[in-house]
Amino acid sequence: MKKRIVYLDNNATTRVAPEVTAAMMPFFEELWGNPSSMHTFGGQVHRHIDAAREKVAALIGAEDPSEIIFTSCGSESNNTALRGVVEAVGGKPHVIVSCVEHPCVLSVARHFKTRGHLVTELQVDGRGRLDLDQFRRELADDTAVVSVMWANNETGVMFPIEQIGEIVHRNSHAVFHTDAVQVIGKLPVRVRDLPIDLLSLSGHKLHAPKGVGALYIRKGTKVNPLIIGGHQEFGKRAGTENVPYIVGFGKACELALAGLEGERTRVARLRDTLEAGILKTCPDTHVNGDREHRLPNTTNISFEYVEGEAILLRLDELGICASSGSACTSGSLEPSHVIRAMGVPFTRAHGSTRFSLSRYNTEEEIDYVLQHIPGVIKGLREISPFAQPSER
Ligand code: PLP
After folding, report:
1. Which of 80, 104, 154 to mutate to test the pocket of ligand 1 (most atoms within 8 A of CB)?
2. How far apart are CA 334 and CA 83, in angstroms?
3. pLDDT tens by residue, 284-319
4. pTM for the complete prediction?
5. Residue 57 DSSP one-character state
6. Which atom of ligand 1 is nearest to the CA of 12?
């Protein structure tokens, strides 16, 4: 019998929507020409890329579809944003990021540092919030780019992007980039009304396949291409377009836009039921991050006195997929940089577990998790070297 899967790891990746797969198939089997070809067979494919671009633009409320370029993933979009702006500006300008960015942003920032750039990593407080006064003070005349994520993938905590963008534009000449990979498809966005110059998104976080992403580039923003050697994507990203995936991404954006309002509240209700149920039935549990400003689908919960990895293994045996805030580095379980940056105490940090939902989750699945989780935690605490006898 096929094992039951309750998938609560949607910030890692999402199931490809069946409508998306169906939309992609003709581009493997029939319409497989090169969109840059002169002949009709190839050329006709191009209008499907344009249609997908319009759908991405519609989902994020861009003024013009030409402000969207397709990439291979969110990581490429983020790399293009940071490297592209710094290269366009030239020299060794100042760069600002937050210390809880995804590694694909942090690594680029730290690479700049090794090349002699001044790089500021903005700190967060115990609830994962930025200090905007510190941020104002850090902006300098030579700041080329500020990159601050819209929502954190581990905690779901959302930064006040509108305020941050206004501060950037009012006080500097810097370009403002936001990694919105975890926001797009979960919350309504109208980028044309926001002080955002560059915005990254990723297909596989919103029910398109892995291997396709996009970067919004507001008209007039100077960004050098990361990949050169072709005219594709308005000369901003060389390489023959991944047509089936781009078409699938467009379809996923169309579906997300159509279902956004209803799904957002339904998913938030399921998340809240899960969270409240865990806090009620498992003693010594804490939610990590600011619960007021958070994605509707995410909860990050610390179970004191147990290792996140142990929880995940026990949940896995029950077919429940979640993820842990720790990473196994050289044999020791280190809490992630996000949890560490928030100053979460050791006994909590090690048991931090992320549950992230999507439109495919049901009430019945949440009931199933709530039925099993108290037993899992109790069982682990009974054998935990961290737990005091009273907690076992
Ligand atoms: N940014 C954030 C916030 C993410 O959560 C992820 C993926 O986990 C990425 C960027 C990278 O996206 P991709 O997997 O498409 O490269």
Report:
1. 104
2. 29
3. 999 999 999 999 999 999 999 998 999 999 999 999
4. 0.96
5. H
6. 8
